[in-house]
Amino acid sequence: MYVTHLECPKCKSRFDYKKLVQLCEKCSSPLLVKYDIKKVKSAFFRAKLSARPYNLWRYKEFLPIENEKNIVSLGEVITPLLKLKNLGKTLGFKHLYLKDEGLNPGGSFKSRGAAVGVSKAKELGVKSFAMPTNGNAGAAWAIYAAKAGIEANIVMPKDAPLITRNECAVSGAKLYLVDGLISDAGKITAKAVQRYGIMDASTLKEPYRIEGKKTMGFEIAEQFGWKIPDVILYPTGGGVGLIGIYKALLELREIGIIDILPRLVAVQAQNCAPIVKAYENGQKESVFWENAKTVAFGITVPKALGDFLVLEAIYKTNGTAVSVSDEDILKYQLLLAGSEGLFICPEGAATAAAAHLLLQSRWIKPNEKVVLLNTGSGLKYPDTVNANSPILSVNDEIVI
Description:
Layout: E1 3-7, E2 14-15, E3 32-35, H1 37-43, E4 81-83, H2 85-91, E5 95-100, H3 110-123, E6 128-132, H4 136-148, E7 151-157, H5 162-170, E8 174-178, H6 182-196, E9 199-200, H7 209-213, H8 215-223, E10 231-235, H9 240-254, E11 263-269, H10 274-280, H11 307-316, E12 320-324, H12 326-340, H13 346-360, E13 369-374, H14 383-386
Parallel strand pairs: 5-13, 6-7, 6-9, 7-8, 10-11, 10-13, 11-12
Antiparallel strand pairs: 1-2, 1-3, 4-5
């Protein structure tokens, strides 16, 4: 392991990675894991990857686990990067791709953050944690906690998808439902953490979830033969996935494997778009979004703790932020399923809608390589399809 310290991106204060540190003790900012890049460069060889396990742990030089015996795994995989030939032709893209995170344990990209986050929690001797969630993150951390023998306390809005609630319950987590948004769940979590002295596993209140999520960036680079695509679109709520991909690409650039960065796009829903509004106003942080509600429940985050990191990633890569309507989210979810056979989550479908908007505005050129991130399986959101798909009744025979 080549971790040197934890660092605050705001005030640059440093902290000991061998201790459980949550936020910067000076300015309350999220912390980032820092590595000895020179040592990583001397140890990481692309040619060695073919002999390694086909999962996120193949990038071990860039990960914070000191003793591999502490790794908690549920069979994570390198998720496929699929070329969307049919949809691309329909919309006008020559090189449109989708990275499908729905094949991970628990059916979402949250497994990456949970795999590394829970593994590090185990290494640090954590016995219990609490976290707020919109669904998938809580489900992922609950199943990994069960494997690790760590108590999980999950606080979730009562309107979260039923399937994610069931995942928490069946894995033995203590599940608490709140009549409100993830921001309300966060307040309840904070009280529990303070009262019981347990680990706070809220988004970006521990530094290791990012390290798991950033492996998406490594995978995309490797799957493209270490030649970076032009644009990556990411559905953005808390923003950890986009922050992680940006961090991974910066680390690859530091060791000389890549020299340019893709333009990163944060995609949000029109009824909850604090990052988009901040970007349009040229701000470094967002403002709390009142009355947030969208069919893409996973990105219903009125105010992200790491919003300044998301916006930095956008600004530094000459990217952008786009919001799309719930109507278009459901439309493109059906379009992807009908044209490519991919039943993806609403959050992932939002990136397809956003990409088409950016193509129509000429921000994306038809010949550019564009990657959509699908963050979860559509099977976890069955209700989004029931209300929108034509279903025919039959008695004795079908009529074509």
